[in-house]
């Protein structure tokens, strides 16, 4: 099987990063506002700048990218313009309709679309139907009983229950474990390396590839790599 330029380039970078044990983490204080403001103003981050603003939405302070709705700051783009007929709008995010077969997949989709927007994330939770909430309750119960709340589903802890709630999540069913890293990074090897370090399903899936590459060289480990990739995004894995 001929390997594409993407993975001829990506493999050595991935191997080198993990062989050295290097994991790059974003500065954890970048989103903390440290400016001292005179009362009643408070420090907020608006478009990357630290500003002193007075509450303008009840007790909350809405930034320029937010609007005040019933005393709560919400993203200004609270409406959607391009949702398909099988989707609905949640705080500016197009979310697939909930069905009996997708459990909480739309909730996961909604959360990813919101990023770190607290109001948007809250709207996602409110949008989830009772069937999804019940599934998540069962997952939470399993994780607590198994004492694995912090270990993640792809360690084998409550993975069955996790995949029942999120059947389209990476590593569940026929969904490739590294598909989101493929989509996010394309042919950027360093990006793929960073992504897999934080994507537990992808990282665990690639462990056999790492072992094979260390013993025989990455070029000899096509099957191990392709087993974690979406073949629709990598022609040489078809």
Mean pLDDT: 81
Number of strands: 6
Any idea what the radius of gyration is?
21 Å
Strand order of the largest sheet: 1-2
Order of helices and strands: HEEEEEEHHHHHHHHH
- Overall spatial form: globular
Largest sheet: number of strands, sense, barrel closure? 2 strands, antiparallel
Give the low-confidence spans: 1-29
Number of helices: 10
Q: What is the straight-line distance between the termini?
A: 9 Å
- Structural category is alpha+beta
Report on this model:
The strands form three sheets. Strands 1-2 form a two-stranded antiparallel sheet. It has a two-stranded antiparallel sheet with strand order 3-4. It is about 40% helix and about 10% strand. The model is unreliable at about 1-30 (pLDDT under 50). It has about 240 residues and is of the alpha+beta class. It contains ten helices and six strands, in the order H-E-E-E-E-E-E-H-H-H-H-H-H-H-H-H. Strand 3 (about 65-70) and strand 4 (about 70-75) form a beta hairpin.
Brief write-up:
The protein has 238 residues and is an alpha+beta fold. It has helices spanning 5-19, 105-114, 118-127, 130-145, 159-165, 179-185, 189-198, 200-205, 207-216, 222-226; strands at residues 42-46, 49-53, 66-69, 72-75, 87-90, 93-96.
What's the SSE blueprint?
Elements: H1 5-19, E1 42-46, E2 49-53, E3 66-69, E4 72-75, E5 87-90, E6 93-96, H2 105-114, H3 118-127, H4 130-145, H5 159-165, H6 179-185, H7 189-198, H8 200-205, H9 207-216, H10 222-226
Helix pairs in contact: 1-7, 2-3, 4-5, 6-7
């Amino acid at each position: 099987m001929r390997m594409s330029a993407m993975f001829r380039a990506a493999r050595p970078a991935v191997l080198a990063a993990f062989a050295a044990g290097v994991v790059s983490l974003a500065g954890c204080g970048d989103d903390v506002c440290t400016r001292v403001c005179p009362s009643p103003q408070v420090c907020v981050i608006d478009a990357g700048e630290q500003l002193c603003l007075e509450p303008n939405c009840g007790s909350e302070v809405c930034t320029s990218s937010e609007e005040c709705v019933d005393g709560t700051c919400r993203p200004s783009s609270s409406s959607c313009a391009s949702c398909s007929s099988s989707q609905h709008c949640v705080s500016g995010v197009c979310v697939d309709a909930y069905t009996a077969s997708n459990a909480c997949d739309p909730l996961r989709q909604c959360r990813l679309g919101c990023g770190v927007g607290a109001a948007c994330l809250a709207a996602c939770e409110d949008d989830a139907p009772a069937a999804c909430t019940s599934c998540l309750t069962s997952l939470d119960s399993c994780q607590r009983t198994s004492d694995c709340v912090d270990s993640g589903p792809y360690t084998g802890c409550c993975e069955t229950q996790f995949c029942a709630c999120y059947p389209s999540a990476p590593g569940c069913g026929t969904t490739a474990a590294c598909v989101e890293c493929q989509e996010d990074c394309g042919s950027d090897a360093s990006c793929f390396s960073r992504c897999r370090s934080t994507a537990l399903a992808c990282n665990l899936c690639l462990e056999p590839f790492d072992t094979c590459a260390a013993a025989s060289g990455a070029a000899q480990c096509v099957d191990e790599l392709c087993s974690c990739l979406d073949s629709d995004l990598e022609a040489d894995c078809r």
